[in-house]
Amino acid sequence: MDEFTQPQSRLKDVHKLLMSAKAIEGIKHSRMACTDQLKEIIKDAGKSLKSHGESSRSEWSENQNKTESRSKFKEIGRFKTALRILEICITIFRIEQRRERNLVVGMDEDVHEVVSRLITNSENCSTHFIVGMKGIGKSTLAQMVFDHRAIQNHFESKYWVPLTDRADEEKNGKKYLIVLDNLSSAEAWESLKAAFRDSTNGSRILITTRYKSVASNAESSHQLRLRTKDESWSLFRQMVHLPSETSDQPELSPEAGEPPELVARKILKELISLNLVQVVERRPNGKEKTCSFPSALRDLWLRSNASFDQRLAYNADEHDASSTFSHGSGKNLPNVLRSCRNPRSILFFDTREGNKPGEEIGNFLSLGIASGHLLQLQVLDLEHVSRPQLPDTIGKLIHLTYLGLRWTYLEKIPQSIGNLTNLQTLDVKHTYICILPSSIWKLKKLQHLCMNQIYRSQIKHQPSGSSLQNLRTLRGAFVDKDSPLKDSLRRLTNLRKLALAFQLNLSQQIALAESLLKLNQVKALKLKSIDEMGLPQDLKATFLSGLENLSYLYLFGKLENTSINKLPQSLTDNTLSASGLLDDPMPELEKLKKLECLSLYSGSYTGKSMPCSKGGFPQLHVLNFWMLKELEEWNVVQEAMPNLKKLEIRSCNSLKVPGGLGHLKTLSELKLKDMPVKFTAEFEKNKEIIWGDIALSPAIIIDGHSQY
User: Fold this and answer.
1) For residue 464, with 0-12 CB atoms within 10 Å meaning exposed, 13-18 middle and 19 or more buried, which class applies?
2) pTM of the full structure
3) Residues 285-295: pLDDT tens digits?
4) Sorting pLDDT into bands at 50, 70 and 90, what band is 213?
5) Measuring CA to CA, which residue among 280, 281, 277 is closest to residue 301?
C-alpha cells in the first residue's frame, strides 16, 4: 500500500486548507463546493480501493496482474491530479478572497449604515440608493451588504441585477432584496419601476449610482465618502505598497455683497453634490471637517489655471517642493521674487528650528515690501515658521486679507498692523503674544480673530470711535477685571463664534453675561472660568437660555445644578467639563430635543449613578463619557436614545458594564479606552449576551483595537 502514501498526504493537506478557509469571511459557498468535490474524489478512491482489495484476493494470471497493476497506478495518478487541482483552487480562491477583503478598508461604518436601513421594521417596499463617484466602491459596498449575515437572515430571497439587465424573476410574494448596480439616470429608474410590484412584506430595492440627481427624490440614500488618509494608506500598503496622495481644494471666489465664507460653503456643497469634491471626514454633527479634491481633477485644474504664477509656496527643504506651482528653496530665498513677481499669496513651509528661519523670512519681507514686489499680496501664511521677524513696514501690505501666524511663537506684532484695512483674518494662536496692539481696533473689515488663550491674550485699550463691528469669530481671548474687552464685547453684535476664558468673580460674571446676551447671533459659544493657575472656578451660566440661536456650547467651570435646566432648546452639541454637578444631569439634558452630540468630561458629574429614560435624547447621535471617576452605574432603558450611533467611554475607573446596551439598536460604534482590566474582561465575557438578539451589532474598539 506504499503507493497510496502520497495521495493520503495530499488529502490531509487539502483538508487543512479547507479548515483554514473557514476563517475567511464570505468563502462559505465556495468552501462547500470544494468540500463536495473532495467527497467525490474520496468516493471514487473508496471504490478503487475496494476493487483493488478484491483483485488482490483473486487468483489472476501473471498477465492479468500486470494489467491490473497498470490500471491501479493509472487510478492513483488520477487521484493525485484531482487532489492537486483541488488544492490549487482552494489556495487561489483564498488569495482572491483576501484581495477582495483588502478593497473594503474603512467601509465598516458604511456597511452598518446601509444594512441597518434595509432591515428596519417597515412593511412597505422601499428603495435605497448608494451614491458616489466612479471607482469609489459603490458596487463593493453593495456586495458587502448583499452578503452580510444580517441581510442573509432577514430576506428570504435576493437578486443581483447588473444593469442594463432587467429584474423579471418571479418573487412569489417572498420578502426579497434586489440590488440594481450602476443606474445611469433617473429616467432609467422610472422605466424599471414597473418591474417591481408594490408589496407590504418588507422587501427592499438597493440601487448604486454615481449621479446624485438620480437619488434626489429617494426615500433613503447613502453618500459614499472617500477613505481617510489612514484608511487609504492601509489599503495601499496591503495592495500596492504605495503611499496615498492628498489633494488640494479648489479656489473659491466670493460674489459681491455676500460674506466670502457663505459663498464658499455654497460652492463647496455644490461641488460635493457633483462629486467633484469628496468629503473625507465629518464632524459629530454631520458637517464637513475634511475634504479632498480627486487627483485626476486636480491635475486638470492645475493645468487649466493660468494664475498660479501669482501664488508662491516656499519650501525650506528644496527636496520637499512637491507642488507644481512651488518656487524657491532655503538656499535662494532672495532670488524667489525674480521668478514670481507681485504674488497674490505666499505660503511658507519651513519647520527649521532656531533663529535663522525667522531672520531669513524677515529680510525677505523687508526687501519685497521695499522693492514693491509684495505690495499686491493678499494672503501671507507663516504657520510653523520659527519666530519670523515682521518688519514695521508690514502695514504697507494694504491688500492683505489673511495673515497666519499660528505656531510661530512670536512675542509681538508691529503697531502698523492697524494699517491693514482690508485684513479679514488674523491668526495668532500658539504664539507668545500676550497683548495685541490697540491699532487692532482700526481693522473694520476683520472677521476672524484667533488669539492665544494659554498666554491670556488681551487687546490694548479700545480707542474711542473704534470697533470691530464685522467680527464674526473670536477665539482664545481672555478677560479679567482690567480687560478692555470686557466692556467692548456687547458691541461685537455680528459675532457667530466666541471662545472666551475669564477670571472673574460672580458679580463680574453677571456683568459679562449681560454683554453676552447682546450677542444674539452667536451660534457657537465656549466659556472657561479659571483661576490664576488655570484651574476651574465657579461659572455663572443661568443666562444661556436667552441665546436662542445657540447650537454649540462648551462649558468649563463649576456649575450650579439649576444651570442645566436653563440651557437653550436650540442646542445640537453640548460639552460639560469640570462642572462638579452633584445631581444627575441626564433628566434635564435628555429634554434637549435637537441635541445630537453630548460629551461629559472630567469632573462634570460627581454622582455614582446615571440612568437614561424612555424617549430621552430623541436625536442624539454621539455620546462621550470621559474620566467620570465617581460614576459606578449607567443604565439604558428600552427606547432611550433611539438614534445613537457612536458611544465612547474613557477612563471611567469605577464604572460597571452598563446595563441595557442592547437597547441601543442603532449603535454602530462603541469605543472603550483606558478602562480597567476588570471592566474589559467582563465586557468581553458578556458582549455576546448583550447583542445576541440584535441583527446588526456595533463595531467594538477597545484601546484602539477594533473587534467585530
Assistant:
1) exposed
2) 0.65
3) 567 888 877 76
4) confident
5) 277
